[in-house]
Design brief:
Distance between the termini: 36 Å
Helix content: 25-40%
Low-confidence stretches: 1-5
Radius of gyration: 20 Å
Mean pLDDT: 93
Structural class: alpha/beta
Shape: globular
Largest sheet: 3 strands, parallel
Bound molecules: glutamic acid
Order of helices and strands: EHEHEHEHEEHEHEHHH
Strand order of the largest sheet: 1-2-3
Number of helices: 9
């Protein structure tokens, strides 16, 4: 593990949730975030987003870390586990409550569904203690500054035409939500660049607002197209995507690199995983990554 360089002006990260083993779609994101950080002399941090124990798969954390090592990745600094940072998320909720930026909510799923899945506006005026169970806490999204952002892979993303739904930051069952934890961690780890899947594009407006609420400057975002399964659903750990075969590390990496726009000549095929990543750094141009929600079949077959 190399030493951390706090003066680094590029700090990227890969932040898998241990809901299952890595699949090719997640490896692709690891490759893109790693190469972009390293091609800019940056640091690349690894964070395990183990925030939701009921959805976690036993052994997945260890398997993810092992798969990344076998594929030649070296992260900078220590691995951060979200399960060890619950006190930080709670502290930020306190802060947001004092600033009157969050509110308690007991709306049912059915009520939200009847409103097209959108929660808009403060639904409860009672004063509720943060420790009281059975209340969800939502971020008030009805008065936001500009949520416009320039994506380094996709076209510029405009401010939403209607205010986004008031997103949950802590659930009724007291588990902290991804949207809260990811922003607290990205702030504390001084992340400057977030390269992640297109499925998270819609979360970015919530996250930018939360950055503003917490008085921090949002990072630069880049959303990489996702891989679809045969039913045109995003490959995902929960949907049982095939785990990566560690025996084929070099072939897996080459497959990702080709999709990310790197032209592979025959000499790439004799290299091992570490050599492939080193070689890829010299050929990395993020503007070769296609834009759009998902990779098309032609991208996959080409
Ligand atoms: N933990 C999220 C996932 O595995 C990624 C979070 C992020 O990159 O912002 O999909």
């Amino acid at each position: 593990m190399s030493n951390e360089r706090p003066d680094c002006d590029y700090i990227g990260r890969f932040a898998p949730s241990p809901t299952g083993h890595l699949h090719l779609g997640s490896l692709l994101l690891a490759v893109a975030s790693y190469l972009d950080a390293k091609a800019h002399q940056g640091n690349w941090l690894l964070r395990i987003e183990d925030l939701d124990p009921p959805r976690e798969q036993a052994g997945a954390k260890e398997a993810i870390i092992e798969t990344l090592a076998i594929h030649g990745f070296q992260h900078d600094g220590n691995i951060i586990y979200q399960s060890q940072r619950l006190h930080v998320y709670e502290q930020k909720l306190e802060q947001l409550l004092q600033q009157d930026l969050i509110f308690p909510c007991r709306c049912t799923r059915q009520q939200i569904r009847q409103n097209n899945g959108i929660h808009r506006g403060r639904c409860n005026r009672a004063k509720v203690d943060l420790h009281e169970p059975n209340w969800a806490w939502r971020l008030d999204m009805q008065r936001t500054a500009s949520l416009q952002f320039d994506d380094i892979i996709q076209p510029p993303q405009p401010h939403p035409t209607v205010p986004p739904s008031d997103v949950i930051l802590r659930r009724k069952d007291m588990y902290h939500a991804y949207q809260l934890a990811v922003v607290c961690d990205d702030i504390d780890q001084q992340i400057t660049h977030v390269l992640r899947g297109m499925d998270l594009l819609d979360s970015t407006a919530w996250q930018i607002h939360l950055y503003h609420c917490l008085g921090a400057k949002p990072p630069i975002y880049g959303h990489v197209p996702v891989l679809l399964d045969t039913h045109n659903h995003k490959l995902s750990k929960q949907n049982g995507a095939v785990p990566i075969d560690n025996q084929r590390a070099a072939a897996n990496l080459l497959w990702c690199l080709r999709l990310l726009g790197i032209h592979l000549s025959t000499d790439w095929y004799d290299a091992d995983a570490k050599q492939i990543l080193t070689k890829a750094l010299k050929h990395w141009h993020r503007d070769k990554i296609p834009s759009g929600y998902s990779f098309s079949n032609t991208d996959l077959i080409a």
